[in-house]
Amino acid sequence: MTDEKTTNSFANLLQNFLATLPKTGELVKGKVTSLDNGEVRLDIGGVMTGVVRGPELFAESEEFSRIKVGDEVEATVIDQENENGEIELSFREAGHKIVWNKMKKYVSEGITVEAKIIHANKGGLMMQVDALVGFMPVSQLSPENYPRVQGGDKNKILEYLKQMIGKTLQVKVLDAEEKDEKLILSEKEVWEDEQKAVLDSYNVGDIVEGEVSALTSFGAFVKFGEGLEGLVHISEIVWQRIDHPKDVLKVGDNVKAQIIDINKSKIYLSVKRLIEDPWKNVKDNYKVGEKIKGEIHKIENFGLMVKLDEDIHGLAHISELEAKDLNDLRERFKIGQKHEFEIISIEPSEHRLGLKFLDDNSKTSKKEEKKEEVEEKKTEEKEKEVKEVKKEEKAEDSKEDVDEKVKTEDATEDATEDVKK
Question: Rounded mean pLDDT of 204-233?
């Protein structure tokens, strides 16, 4: 009877043990009991031992690279029993889940983390974050590290990015999708957070003084204050129309500018608004119908930009120039030439002044050339007619001479016959 009870008791214990035995793929918690020869052993619930070894140690993860005896960790079961009767565990599978969960937490809480640049391509940077590799688009770099390459040459941008490999940056995780293994990072978000406190001391309308830090086709960047940088759009540099900021500015110039907009961390500046608008008094200096000498400043597809003075430029539209296209304009007009124009419209609020071309020397010379060609052609035709007439007259004269000769010969023959008779 006692033996039967003992057998039943053992069977119950075995059944209970098997019921509590973790299944393959299950996540378990355990306490580290030893770290020997590249193997980590865990005590699981005081009733079983698990072991993590080889590549399953997942040493590239911060979560598992610094563990010590006594730490409580999580691991994934990959085999319920190995050759030593221990549960075979993996930090790698567990680690991936833990790291992705951590990244999702970083996204929701906006936590800043360190990331190391390990590779660069034309679109951005590949970065190591904990045990994962994330991607930072070029647009998410801070202004300090953003590649300001003239013309946006992708090869030059790549050269710039490659020089950053090996650097460690403070970043935020914008997106973490474990299923797609998508991890998007941003340095700009960290920079924006740092700027918020500084930006709070500035308002739209404030005047700042700074240094031109970069020039692009769309504007100039100006550094000012405590590490702040603002953009002066090309249309906000001067009142006149310019092709490129380098026409009036260069890197290193000190300028005064007015803050015209603050959008999150983006600051927009204007230099020209600190200078009196010359178009305010344009009607005091120029009148519609007035004839004026102007210097050709630019030749565009749509007409001529004409400099009336240092501040006011007008437009002689192509429709007022009787020109076919840009090539025709460039053939007839040259930059720097002065011609006479008539002012046909003035719109101060729009900074527009319309002109009509009056100096027709170029057109007159063309007409004269054409007239000379026609006259030459007429002269040639007339000379040809005269030659033809002369030729005909000469032919007639030759015919008359022949007829006369024939008549003479006939008369001679007749006379000879009469003598014979």
Answer: 91
Q: How far apart are the C-alpha atoms of 63 and 55, rounded to whole Å? A: 15
Q: How far apart are CA 132 and CA 387, in angstroms?
A: 99
Mapped onto helix, strand or coil, the DSSP state of residue 305 is: strand
Predicted pLDDT at 125: 95
Predicted pLDDT at 363: 47
Taking 90 as the threshold, does the pLDDT of residue 27 lie above it? no
Q: Check if the beta carbon of residue 345 is closer than 8 Å to that of residue 354.
A: yes
User: Exposed, middle or buried: residue 211 (CB in 10 Å: 0-12, 13-18, 19+)?
Assistant: middle
Q: How far is CA 106 from CA 22, 100, 113, 174, 295, in A?
A: 31, 10, 8, 9, 62
First-last CA distance in the chain = 196
**Above pLDDT 90, what percent of the chain?**
39
Give the Cβ contact number of residue 86 at 10 Å.
19
Q: Copy the structure tokens of residue 68.
A: 């010590």
Q: What pLDDT digit, counting tens, does each position of 106-133 carry?
A: 999 999 999 999 999 989 999 999 878 9
Comparing CA positions, the residue from 255, 270, 275 lying closest to residue 204 is 270
pLDDT of residue 321: 84
Structure tokens at 208: 């700042």
β strands within 62-131, DSSP E: 72-79, 87-90, 112-121, 124-129
Return the DSSP state at 141.
Answer: S
- Cβ proximity of 314 and 298 under 8 Å: no
CA distance 381 to 126: 81
